[in-house]
Fold this sequence. Notes:
23% of the residues lie in helices and 24% in strands. By secondary structure, it is an alpha+beta fold.
Amino acid sequence: MRQGKTFVLLTAAIFAAFTIISCSKSDKKDDAPQEQPGKIPGMGEAGGEPQGTALTFPAGVSISGAPIKGEVCDTAYEAGSGGLVEVCVAFVNTNATAVTYTIPAGLIVISQNGDYQNGILIQNTTIALKAKSTTRVGIKLYCVNSGRHPSSGEITYKIGPVTNSPLLRELLDLLKNKKTALKEYPNFDGYFDAVSTIQMLVWLITDGQGLERTTLNAHLASIPNK
């Protein structure tokens, strides 16, 4: 797997494309969501905290009280996709049996330092939690604040809500049957291209002016279906 293309390059490549495309006018009609791109609380340059519904867990499952760091976990267990935001979360299962838990698409993790990016989980992600155990999971997410720094091991995060943004929910629905995980690609280059496109689409909602439908469809078509 060729990983010479770092996520520093990812940031530069996406931001260049984002800057060009975000200058085009959106073709959203009156029946489109009333929410405006670039003005979603806690995203882009908008103030406030991300809005949505609280994350819920099955009985006996919780998140450890240990700080959630913006870093790669000391475990091989990874979930999600993206890379500009990555957090290490310790899930606790106190049940006598293993539990399969699905982290819902749209989950937001919130940086506790305003100079660093908040992240969004782009697809439902299922993890297996062993009985009577703590499982550390590295969760990869997409950035929702293009002007901030990528995640860092020096920064702590908190689990935020599952977004109720109509624009983001629409994008999540359009991406639910797309290949977004590294394991779904035969090589890193294919994954890199898909991740770059998805991150650009997220930024056009959170930081930009939206995207007209024909161009949106063309970008979505470039991401392979499952």
